[in-house]
Amino acid sequence: MNYPVNEIFQTIQGEGYYTGTPSIFIRLQGCPIHCPWCDTKYTWTCLDKNKISSEEIIKKNTSNQQWSLMNVEQILLNIKIKKWTAKHIVITGGEPCIYNLLHLTETLEKKGFRCQIESSGTQLIQCSLNTWVTISPKKNQNTLLTAMLRSNEIKYPILKKEDLSYLDKILSMVKNKKKCYVSLQPISQNKEALEICIKTCIMKNWKLSIQLHKYILIK
């Protein structure tokens, strides 16, 4: 199976449960959600005019709309050529779950990698049983019950206090059905949102996710 890859790079995971973990990011092209605060708006559309070769993706060092169809063998070759050492792979986007990720995650695991998917929870999640699934529900979007039940982590973006009401609503969907690891993440390093997140995390005994990579200025 081929996947529309926007970029592949090695860095430190800056968000959620795996914050601080050396990671290889596979960013897929395409997203139907279009959040106004999105950091990766260049991944929203998958236009033929922006298609490039897999060799060009290997050399790509800027974030833009260019993408390439790649299979898992080409992705693994990319990692080998770069001589990357991280064993944690984050499949992100865009919205990666608009694609069937079962073959990708199972193959990467057979090669010794641990996989994590970052998704909005609005799509059917198709991946290996061992894949760590991080769901970031979005207000006014249709968060799927199946996605919530499959998730290992709920990483919820906050801009204002009213945003918490939707989180309460979707957490009620899985009440008593599974244990949820919850973290709150202030949008765009907003100071007011950060204060809301800190106060709520202390009150609820949740975790704070602060997008570490933005503070230490890495990709």
From TrEMBL:
Pathway: Purine metabolism; 7-cyano-7-deazaguanine biosynthesis. Keywords: 4Fe-4S, Iron, Iron-sulfur, Lyase, Magnesium, Metal-binding, Queuosine biosynthesis, S-adenosyl-L-methionine. This is 7-carboxy-7-deazaguanine synthase. Binds 1 S-adenosyl-L-methionine per subunit. PROSITE patterns: RADICAL_SAM (PS51918). Gene3D superfamilies: Aldolase class I (3.20.20.70). It comes from Buchnera aphidicola str. USDA (Myzus persicae). Mg(2+) binds at residue 40. It catalyses: 6-carboxy-5,6,7,8-tetrahydropterin + H(+) = 7-carboxy-7-carbaguanine + NH4(+). Catalyzes the complex heterocyclic radical-mediated conversion of 6-carboxy-5,6,7,8-tetrahydropterin (CPH4) to 7-carboxy-7-deazaguanine (CDG), a step common to the biosynthetic pathways of all 7-deazapurine-containing compounds. InterPro entries: 7-CO-7-deazaguanine_synth-like (IPR024924), Aldolase_TIM (IPR013785), rSAM (IPR007197), rSAM_QueE_proteobac (IPR027609), rSAM_sf (IPR058240). Belongs to the radical SAM superfamily. 7-carboxy-7-deazaguanine synthase family. Residues 18-219 form the Radical SAM core domain. One of its GO terms (molecular function) is magnesium ion binding. Homodimer. Its cofactor is S-adenosyl-L-methionine; Mg(2+); [4Fe-4S] cluster. HAMAP family: QueE (MF_00917). It holds the Pfam family Radical_SAM. Its EC number is 4.3.99.3. S-adenosyl-L-methionine binds at residues 37-39, 94, 136-138. The gene is ygcf.
